[in-house]
Design a protein that fits this description.
about 230 residues, single chain, alpha/beta, eight-stranded parallel sheet
Length: about 230
């Protein structure tokens, strides 16, 4: 395996995607509506971005703010349409009101993905039992990544959890890659890399003018250099 760390950047549109690739992003997470922490982009947006860049794309499957699945059939239909458009990697994750994983919803969506690789997103940072969630999802096909800050409050608070989970890499439920995102800063990298974590996710950090502005290729390049 290469020692190169993976850098994933959130992209909202073609402009973001092109800038992120130019800056050295390895993969994009495609979303819309950042005010709702990222929802499923349109089929047309996916197609336009796919035509504009040649790095892997992971597409968000989430139709409403929060971590409840809502109408699962709507999410399944979105997955079906995106797969028909050529999407092959996804991001999803749903919780019940008590904070446990909504296995019925997750399994319904994963069945539609038919083996495609996917990330369980930061719903893990809102769950009542991280270890229990990991073990409950361990046998689902295609799950290869957890996007997590270690805490709902972000990496500053979650760093000890991230380091502890990285040390459990050979245990049941701890096989998927840890992709660190959520308040991640360059100052966190030394500790995370020292623990063997090799995948990082940025959104606001790629946008010097804030979430209302576009991705900056130069900002992404700074992260790429820091991870080299």
């Amino acid at each position: 395996m290469s020692n190169r760390a993976l850098l994933e950047v959130i992209a909202l549109d073609v402009e973001d995607a092109v800038a992120a690739q130019a800056g050295g992003a390895d993969r994009l997470e495609l979303v819309t509506d950042m005010a709702a922490d990222g929802l499923t982009p349109s089929r047309e947006t996916f197609a336009a971005i796919r035509a504009a860049v040649d790095i892997p794309l992971r597409v968000m499957l989430r139709k409403a703010d929060g971590f409840a699945a809502g109408d699962v059939s709507v999410v399944v239909e979105a997955a079906r349409e995106l797969r028909a458009e050529g999407a092959r990697e996804f991001v999803l994750g749903f919780l019940n009101p008590d904070g446990s994983p909504d296995l019925a919803a997750v399994e319904a969506v994963v069945a539609e993905l038919d083996g495609c690789r996917w990330t369980f997103h930061r719903a893990i940072d809102r769950t009542a039992d991280r270890d229990g969630l990991r073990k409950a999802l361990a046998d689902l096909p295609g799950l290869d990544t957890y996007l997590t800050a270690g805490s709902a409050a972000g990496v500053d608070e979650g760093l000890p959890v991230l380091l502890a989970e990285a040390a459990r890499g050979g245990e049941p439920g701890y096989g998927p890659r840890i992709l660190v995102g959520g308040g991640l800063t360059l100052s966190h990298l030394a500790s995370l890399r020292g623990a063997g974590i090799d995948a990082f996710h940025i959104g606001g950090a790629a946008r010097p003018s804030g979430w209302g502005g576009p991705v900056s290729a130069a900002a992404v390049a700074d992260w790429r250099a820091a991870l080299s």
